[in-house]
Amino acid sequence: MSNSLSRSLPVLGNARRTSNEDHHGVVRHRSRSVSRLQRTSLAGPLPTKLGFSDEREKLAQDEGNEAQKLGSFSGVFVPTTLNVLSILMFLRFGFLLGQSGVLGMMAMLIISYAIDLITAMSISAIATNGTVRGGGAYYLISRSLGTEFGGSIGIVFYLGCVLNTGMNAVGLVDCFKQNFGVVSGSKSHFLYEGFWWEYLWASIILLLCTAICLAGSSVFSRASNGLLIVLLVSTFSIPLSACIRQPFRNERLGIEFTGFSSVSFFDNLYPRLTKGAAGSQIKRRENFQDLFGILFPATSGIFAGTSMSGDLKNPSRSIPKGTLYGLALTFSTYTIVILTLAASVTRESLYRDVNIIQDTNMSGFLIVLGEFSTSFFSSLMGIIGAAKVLQAISRDALLPGLSIFAKGTKKNDDPITSILITLAIAQITIFFDINQIASFVSMAYLMTFLVTNLACFLLKIGSAPNFRPSFHYFNSTTAFVGTIISGASMFFTDGVYATGCVCVLVTLFLLIHYMAPPKTWGDVSQSLIYHQVRKYLLRLRPEHVKFWRPQILLFVNNFESQYKMIHFCNSLKKGALFVLGRVLVTDDFATAVPVVRKEQTAWNKFIEFSKVKAFINITAAPNIEWGVRNVVLSAGLGGMRPNVVVIDQFRKDNSDASLDPGLPLVRPTRRTSSNLSDGEGDPLRKTRTDSFERDPPMNVQSYLTVLEDLLFQLRMNVAVARGFENIELPGTNDESPAKFIDLWPIQMSGEISSDGGRKCTNYLTTNFDTYTLILQLGCILNTVPSWKRSCRLRVAVFVEYETDVEEERRRVMTLLEKLRICAEVLVFWLASGDLQTYRIIVNGDRNNVDKVVLDAVEQVLEEEDWWNELGRYRTTSRSSRSQRQTPTGSGSTTPREGGRRRAGLEGLKRVIESSRRRSIGPGVSLGMQTHRLLDSMVEYNSDGNESSSEESDIDSYLSENENENEPEGNDPMTASDVPTINQPEETTEGTTAAATTATPSPRVMFMKKGRVASSAKFSSAPIPTTKVVSEEGTGPSIMFADSSPPRRGSATAAGLESIYNRNSGTASQPAVTSAEGDTENQPRASGYPSQAAVPLSFNDLPGRAQHLILNELIKSQSKDTAVVFTTLPTPVEGVSHDKASCEAYVNDLEVLCDGLPPCLLVHSNSVTVTMNL
C-alpha cells in the first residue's frame, strides 16, 4: 500500500533524493571547513588533533541530526492526512448526509475545503519567503504580524490542540465502549464502563501517545506511517463494500443496504432537515448552521504538518507540498465516501442508525481500526504539535514563567517539559463536556485560519521588496477572501463561542503587549504604516490656519538636564509634530559620522524609554549657526514641518555640563571607547563625556545670530525657554504649590522711519499674532489632562493708570470670548504705588523704598547714560526748587522761574532724543522683516514749532557733542502729531506675516539708551478693540481694530488727564502754581509723577527699565505659577555684528526673567487663530 501510494504521488516520493542533496550540502560545508583550517595553518600553528577531531565530531553530529529530520511525505503529508481524516467521518457522516443530502453536504464540504485551500496557500506563501524554524503556525504568524498577534494566536492554537487531544481520547474511548463495552458493546463485552473507568481508559491512551512523543520524531514518524496505512485501508473499504456486498435489510437496526442504486442516490440528493434523528444533539429541527458546525472540524487539521516545522529537513519546501497534497487526498476520500454512502443506503437508514458506515461495511472491525487510527493519531499529534508550539513561545519569552518549557533534548531538541505539561492539561480537559470542547476547538482553528490569511494579505499589500515567496499560487485577493470567510464561519457556526474566543485573543494580546520585552523580528505593521504614511504625506498640504497646531522643533543637547523641557514641549504639541534638533560642531565630517550614529541611537532609546512622541534630527556642521540653519530647513517631511522653534536661554557660564541644557555645544572626538548603542542600562543614565569633547562656551554673537536667523530669515515662530530645568511637571509632585499657567501677552511699541530717513515716528504696534499665539499656547497646554487637573489658566495684562483698568479688562475678555478661551483675567495698573521699581524709575520717588530694591535698580541701570542724565536732572531740579522756596514756605514760583524750568525740560528732551535717534537708526523690525514706510504711506501733521533755544539752569551738564549733533527740524511729535497705521503684510504663503496695527504712542519724552539691541519696547497702552472680519477671505479673520486711544475719565483738569492724551506743552510743564493757588494741593491722577520727577510714563522708558518694572510685577503675582508665557522682545536685525549690543540684549532678557518661574518668551511670525468656521 505504501509503495502504491508513493507511485501515485511521485513528487512526494523524493524524500530520499532530498536527503541526498542535503547530505551533499553537508559534505560541501565540511570541505569548506577543512579548507579553512588548512588555510589558517599556513599563517599560524597547526591545529591540534583534538581540535580537529572536535570539528569532525561536530560535523558528524550535524549529519546525524539532519538524517533524523523528516521529509515532505513523513513530516507533512502523513500528519495532515491523518489529522484531516477525522473520526467524525465514521460517526457523523451518515447523520449529516441524511439531513443535508448529497448537494447540501457537498456544498458544505466545498466551503470547508475552500477555507482550507486558501489558508494552505497563505501558509505556503509565508513559509516559502524565508527560513522556517520550530513553532509551526505560531512561528509563521509571529514573524509576520509581530509579537502580540503571534503570541496571542499561538497560545489560542496551543489550547485548541490540547483540547483536541482530550476530545479525541474521549472519542476513542467512546468508540471502544460502543464496540466492546460491558453494557453497550456490539462486538464484545469486556471493557468496563462508568465515568472513572472511561477516565482511566482515556488516560491510558494519552500516556501511550506521550510515550511515543517522548521517544522522538523518528518513532513518531514510523507510528504515523503505520496508522496512515490502517486508516486508508479502513476508509477505502467503504466504497469497496458498496461494490461487493449484497443488498440486505436489518430490521433490528432499521437499516437497508441497497448497494449501488440510482434510486437511493436520487432519494438522498436533496436536503431534508428533520428533528430527533439518530446522532442529533438538539431537540429542535436541524439547520445548516448546526450541520456546518459538525462538518468543519472534520476538515480543519491542515496545520498538523506545519506544526512539525522544527523536525523538517526543508520546511519551506515541505510545508506547501505536503499540505496541498494532503488536502487533495482527503477531499477525494471524503467525496468518495459521501457519494458511496448516498448511493448504497436509504434515507430512512441514515435517520435511524448513527453508526451506519460500520453496520453496512463488509468488515466492521476495519472501521473500528480506522476509528482507532484517526483518533489515536489526533491525540498523538495534539500532544507533540502543541508541545512544540509551547516550546517556541517559551523560547521567545513572551510571557513570564514559561522559560522552563523552552528546553529541549541535546540530541533532537525534543520538548520534554512541554510534552509533560501538555499531558497534564489534556488530563484536565477529559472532565469537560465533549460537545463544548469541540466548539472551542473549532473556534481556535478558525481563528488561526483567520490570522494566517490576514498575515499573508498584509504582507502582500504592504509591498515590501523582501516579500518574495517562491510559492506563487496566491494573491492579496485570495488571502483577503480567506480572512473574511474564516471570520464569518466562526460567527456562523457558534456566535457565543466565537465571541468568547475573540475575548481570549484580545486579553492575551494585551498581556503580551505590556509584558513581553521588545523583539527585533520586524512585523508587517511597520510596512503598512510606512506605506500609508508615505501615501498620506504626499497628500498632506501646508497647514490651514483653521487647523493650526504647534509643530515644535526643540534644540537639545543633554537629555538629563533637558528632560523636563522635553516633556513640557511634548505636552505643548497638541498631537502634532515634535522634533528634537541636535547639532554637533565639528571640522572633521568623517570623524563625526560614527558619533552622529551613536547619538541617534542614544536619543532614540531616550524617546522610547521616556514615552515622548518625538523624532530626533541630528546634524554635523562646522559651527552652531550653520547647524541650526540646516536642522530648521531639513526638519519634517512634506506637509509636516515645524512651525515653532524653541531654543534655550543664553547662558553666560557654560562650564558645568550638567547645567547646560542650551543649544548643542559639543564636538566629536576620535575616541570610541564609549558605546552609546550597546543597549545596556537605562539611556537616561548615560553620559556623553566619553564620546564627546566639549567646545568652549557658545559666544553671545553666535546666539544672537541664531535668533536673528530664526526671526528674520527663516521667519519662524520662536520661543526662548528659561528656567525649565526647575519646572514642576504635573504628577511629579502631588504637593506641588504651582496652581496656575500665567499668560502675559504684552504689546510692543517701535520706531518707524520714513524713506527719507530723517523723519522718525513712534507707533504703538499691536503685535496681534504674538499676542494671540501666547493665548493659543496657554490654552493648548491647559487642555492636557495632567495640566488641566493641577493648574488653572490665567491671562494677566497691565495698564499704567487706574482709569484704564476696566476698559482693558473688557477688551481682553471680549478677545478671549471670541477665541473661545476660558481663563481668569487679571488686570494690573503700574502707577498703583505697589511697584517700588516703578516709583523709583518713573516718579523718582526714593522714600519708603526697600534699600535692596533701590540698590538693585542702581546696579542694573548704573551704566545707562539716560539714567545718569535723568538722575542729575532730578537732583538739579530738587535743588532749584529748594532754592526757590520762600522763607514762609509758600512755594510760589515766579513766571521767570517757570519759564527757565520749561526751557530746561525742552533742552533735556531735545538732547536725549538726538542720542536715541543716533542709536536706533532708520527702520523698525518688531521681530519680523524690517519695514521702511514710504512718505506716501505716512501722513505727518507736524505743527512745525521749533523747540525753544532759551538757556536754562540745567544746560551745564549737557555735552557739547550732543548739542552739535542735534538734527534740525526733528522735534519730538506729540500725541496729536502721530499718525495711525494698520498695514498687515501678506506673505507668499497667504498668511499674514505681521498684522501690525500702529497707534500713536503717547510718549512725551524719548529716553536715550546706551545700546539699542531690541527693535521694539513694551507698551502699557490698553489693547485696541478686537475686530472680526465680516466677509470670509484669504486674510486673517480676527485682528485688533484700528482705533485712537480711548478717553480716560471725564475730568478736565490737566492733573486728571491721562498721560497718553497730553500734548507736548502739557507734558513739558509740570503744574506751575499761580498767584491764587499752590500746586501741592491740586488733585492728581493715580501715579502721576511728583514735582521732583520728570513727567515720564512706562512707555517712555528704555527696554531695560521696563524689564525691571515688569519683573517685579510678574514676580509679585507668580508665587503659585507653574509656567509663564510672555512676549519676546525681538532684537534689531543685524545686532549680532556688535558684541556689545548682543550682550546688552541678553542682559535685558536676564533682567526681565530674573527670579521668575519657568518662562517661555514667544514671538510669532504667522497667524495662528481664526474665526472662520
Summarize the structure.
With 1173 residues, this protein is of the alpha/beta class. The chain is 49% helix and 9% strand. The protein is built from 35 helices and 23 strands.
Question: What is the secondary structure topology, with strand pairs?
Answer:
Blueprint: H1 2-8, H2 15-43, H3 49-68, H4 72-84, H5 88-127, H6 137-145, H7 147-180, H8 195-214, H9 217-244, E1 248-250, E2 255-257, H10 262-267, H11 288-295, H12 315-344, H13 347-352, H14 356-359, H15 364-395, H16 416-429, H17 434-461, H18 476-493, H19 495-515, H20 524-539, E3 552-555, H21 563-572, E4 578-585, H22 589-610, E5 615-621, H23 624-634, E6 644-648, E7 666-668, E8 692-694, H24 700-713, E9 717-722, E10 740-744, E11 747-753, E12 760-767, H25 768-783, H26 785-790, E13 792-799, H27 805-818, E14 824-829, H28 836-843, H29 851-861, H30 865-884, H31 895-920, H32 960-964, E15 981-982, E16 985-986, E17 992-994, E18 996-1000, E19 1016-1019, E20 1026-1028, E21 1038-1040, H33 1064-1067, H34 1103-1117, E22 1121-1127, H35 1139-1153, E23 1159-1163
Parallel strand pairs: 3-4, 3-6, 4-5, 6-9, 10-13, 10-22, 13-14, 22-23
Antiparallel strand pairs: 1-2, 7-8, 9-23, 11-12, 11-19, 12-18, 15-18, 16-17, 20-21
Helix pairs in contact: 2-3, 4-9, 4-12, 5-11, 5-12, 5-17, 5-18, 6-7, 6-17, 7-8, 7-15, 7-16, 7-17, 7-19, 8-15, 8-16, 9-12, 9-15, 15-16, 17-18, 17-19, 17-20, 18-19, 23-24, 28-34, 30-31, 34-35
